[in-house]
Design brief:
Chain lengths: 116, 110
């Protein structure tokens, strides 16, 4: 049974970098079949696709976040990670990792607060 | 890349049917048969209930069905049950491995 689990700091200071990791168990992220991605949901609001990565190294980002986001894989750890630079209060959200392309598997989500 | 448009809320009595619309453009919903739907209960992660416009994952009741016409996709819940009360989101492929979600719809069972 494939499972995804997000981890990382729950509090980030304004202007700093948000860093999260998604650990995948039960399947190899290097299998080549799937892309792996990040989605976020501000409190009380809707879902926003952030971006995704394939084991080939190819990455795809939401145009609205493209200048601030990096997603990369750490194959040896069977993990993929998200970095979002220069965060503001608008980046506060529950961040989910998921398996694409149908988003059929999701992590439980991790809440990130932006505050000094 | 603008969010797909969904009604803010829909409601129905147990046993009734409700339909949620998801309107995009020819660059997303209308351009690909890759529309999916998710159910999200409070405090929980979204759950896939429809993919590729009409397909249901194993374990999802056949009360949930999807369709598409032009730039608008729809999710119909037939025989509404109390446990169907949740937020629902559509999502469409938008080309070059990018995706866009809908604004979300709250389903209330009266």
């Amino acid at each position: 049974q494939v499972q995804l689990q997000e981890s990382g700091p729950g509090l980030v200071k304004p202007s700093e970098t948000l860093s999260l990791t998604c650990t995948v168990s039960g399947a190899s992220i290097g299998s080549g079949i799937y892309h792996w991605g990040w989605i976020r949901q501000p409190p009380g609001k809707g879902l926003e696709w952030i971006g995704s990565v394939h084991y080939s190294g190819a990455t795809y980002y939401n145009p609205s976040l493209k200048n601030r986001v990096t997603i990369f894989m750490e194959m040896s750890e069977n993990q993929f990670s998200l970095k979002l630079n220069s965060v503001t209060a608008a980046d506060a959200a529950v961040y989910y990792c998921a398996r694409l392309r149908t988003f059929d598997l999701w992590g439980q989500g991790t809440l990130v607060t932006v505050s000094s | 890349q603008s969010a797909l448009t969904q009604p803010r809320s829909v409601s129905g009595s147990p046993g009734q049917s409700v339909t949620i619309s998801c309107t995009g453009t020819s660059n997303d919903v209308g351009g690909y048969n890759y529309v999916s739907w998710y159910q999200q209960h409070p405090g929980k992660a979204p759950k896939l209930i429809i993919y590729d416009v009409t397909e249901r994952p194993s374990g999802v009741p056949d009360r949930f069905s999807g369709s598409k016409s032009g730039n608008t996709a729809s999710l119909t819940i037939s025989g509404l049950q109390a446990e169907d009360e949740a937020d629902f989101y559509c999502c469409s492929y938008a080309g070059t491995y990018t995706y866009v979600f809908g604004t979300g719809t709250k389903v209330t069972v009266l």
